[in-house]
Specification:
heterodimer, A: 470 residues, alpha/beta, 11-stranded mixed beta sheet, 16 helices, 40% helix, 15% strand, globular, B: 73 residues, mainly alpha, 2 helices, elongated
């Protein structure tokens, strides 16, 4: 089997071949390393690449499987972790040279669970410094580049995770999502990004940005692979005080391609704000297609939608500044300027204001919860535009020139506030050749319904099979 | 350049000018650097415009939650 097929094969497809010893993990890792060698000069997905460690792990996996010790569907599958997931013995920079030499003594829970499942760590992925930004810029390790057009952003903050998965450098990558940092790069790079329910996947051993908004989540090329990743990483963890003691289902059971009986609410306000007409049309067409597949599509309203940004900003800024205050004082001059600016601004929010935003968050959550009492899912766009040009501070959205950062996060922040599971699934390409994502969000701890609808849509379309011209 | 009130628009617990300068100094900003301070004032003013919108929401009955609960078994 030629290597070129291996790097783009899904983990789901590969796992059966590895289990049956038709494909060796050694060949899979070599295919990914070749792909990385060919594309990394363009993409800059990695901060730290681990070729020798990955080759050694692949050889061990091959031997284990050869002895009949197959661990499960992730055994021998290449993964990449955003560089804020602590990895024992492997430096973890959080995207800033200030931590260039930080080598954790132990794995974060997610890394440990992947390792236990037999997955192979290919390296640590580039990111917006401290995860504080939605574009995928990095002044220390270089900006991330979109595989569909390298002059465009990957989105962020998990930009390297987006480009690595989209370009076939790794089969499964992980990001973290505080205001959209899994779903934004997933949408802009044309892959699947799942932000699970808050508390579903452990944050232990991740560099925090905002304790009550941070969600680790998988970024992959297919919905099946999101389910496989979730099966490995989801579940209670005593190391994370926010971890939820809620039973974890077999997520692959959601892959039925049947949406009959589901009620999907199309949120009116998402289409009334500034939105590129081509993006809006693709998203509306995807929602209509879910209707043709048997779901009932209903028009719903979220009157508080417009307050998502101010609520999220107040909480995120306060917590990010609290988390990184010492760094700001000791090494502020070494931080990426836009990140330093945002941390400085957080110093000027008072405790009373932070708590008022948390009160407002409760009111906001109640409104979303009420909506999700009448429908199973909420649908809309992930992004109002396709990927903007790198370092563009203002972007054109439906004919209006607007600041990039709030535009890129205006749909995603809603579900960080509520903690709800939400996914971006590819739903087409605009005239500029760049991908667009469909946003589906469900009730807390009901990732199953989110995956079920995303899989049904994926199976009825072929967007996930298209590859960037690299 | 006219000096902007960095904490405008007023919210119920805005800090005053002296506190503003103190906070700026603690984060390593040279408060005698007029350009740097003007930039900071403009950014903080913009950030607080957004923050003021939170006060438009009726929060009656909603508690101010804390993630940390000291006595939960």
């Amino acid at each position: 089997m030629p290597e070129t097929e291996l790097h783009y094969m899904s983990a789901w497809e590969l796992s059966g071949l590895i289990r049956d010893r038709q494909v060796s993990p050694v060949d899979v890792v070599e295919a990914c390393l070749s792909r990385i060698e060919a594309t990394e000069p363009t993409l800059n997905s990695f901060i730290t690449l681990l070729p020798e460690q990955a080759r050694a792990a692949a050889t061990r996996a091959e031997q284990e499987i050869g002895r009949g010790n197959y661990r499960g569907p992730l055994h021998g599958i290449p993964v990449g972790l955003k560089d804020l997931f602590n990895t024992a013995g492997v430096r973890t920079t959080s995207g800033t040279r200030i931590y260039d030499n930080f080598v954790p003594a132990e794995d974060c829970t997610v890394a440990a669970r992947f390792s236990q499942a037999g997955a192979i760590l290919m390296g640590k992925l580039n990111m917006h410094p401290l995860a504080f930004g939605p574009t995928g810029e990095n002044g220390d390790y270089g900006h991330m580049h979109n595989p569909w057009n390298p002059e465009r952003i990957t989105g962020g903050s998990s930009g390297g995770s987006g480009s690595a998965a989209a370009a076939g450098q790794c089969h499964i990558t992980m990001g973290s999502d505080t205001g959209g940092s899994v779903r934004i790069p997933a949408a802009l790079c044309g892959i699947v990004g799942l932000k699970p329910t808050y508390g579903r996947v452990s944050r232990a051993g991740l560099t925090p940005l905002s304790w009550c908004l941070d969600h680790p989540g998988p970024m992959v090329r297919t919905v099946e692979d999101a389910a496989l990743a979730m099966n490995a990483i989801a579940g209670p963890d005593p190391r994370d005080p926010a971890s939820a003691n809620v039973a974890v289902p077999d997520y692959t059971a959601a892959l039925t391609a049947d949406v009959r009986g589901l009620r999907i609410g199309m949120v009116r306000e998402y289409f009334e704000t500034e939105l590129d007409p081509a993006v809006g049309e693709l998203v509306q067409r995807a929602i209509a297609q879910l209707g043709e597949l048997g779901a009932e599509i209903v028009d719903v309203s979220l009157p508080l939608y417009d307050y998502a940004q101010p609520i999220s900003n107040a909480i995120l800024s306060s917590e990010a500044t609290a988390a990184h205050r010492d760094l700001l004082l000791s090494d502020g001059d070494k931080l990426y300027p836009q990140v330093r600016d945002r941390l400085e601004e957080g110093l000027f929010i008072t405790a009373a204001e932070y708590l008022r935003a948390q009160q407002a968050r409760q009111v906001f959550c109640a409104q979303v919860e009420e909506l999700l009492g009448s429908v199973d899912l909420l649908a809309g766009p992930v992004e109002p535009v396709t990927a903007p040009v790198i370092l563009e501070r203002r972007i054109d959205v439906g004919g209006e020139s607007l600041p990039a950062v709030p535009q890129l996060t205006k749909y995603t922040r809603v579900y960080n506030i509520t903690g709800s599971p939400a996914i971006s699934v590819p739903c087409g390409f605009a005239d500029d050749g760049l991908p667009v994502g469909l946003h589906l969000a469900g009730r807390n701890f009901d990732e199953m319904t989110v995956l079920r609808a995303a899989y049904a849509y994926q199976q009825a379309s072929d967007w996930h099979t298209r590859r960037p011209p690299l | 350049m006219a000096q902007q009130d960095p904490m405008s628009p007023e919210t119920d617990s805005a800090i005053g000018e002296q506190a503003f300068l103190r906070v700026a100094a603690t984060c390593g900003i040279d408060t005698s650097d007029a350009d740097r301070m003007a930039d900071l004032r403009a950014r903080v003013a913009l950030m607080r415009q957004g923050l003021a919108r939170v006060y438009e929401i009726d929060v009656s009955g909603a508690e101010s939650p804390s993630v940390f609960v000291p006595n939960r078994p």
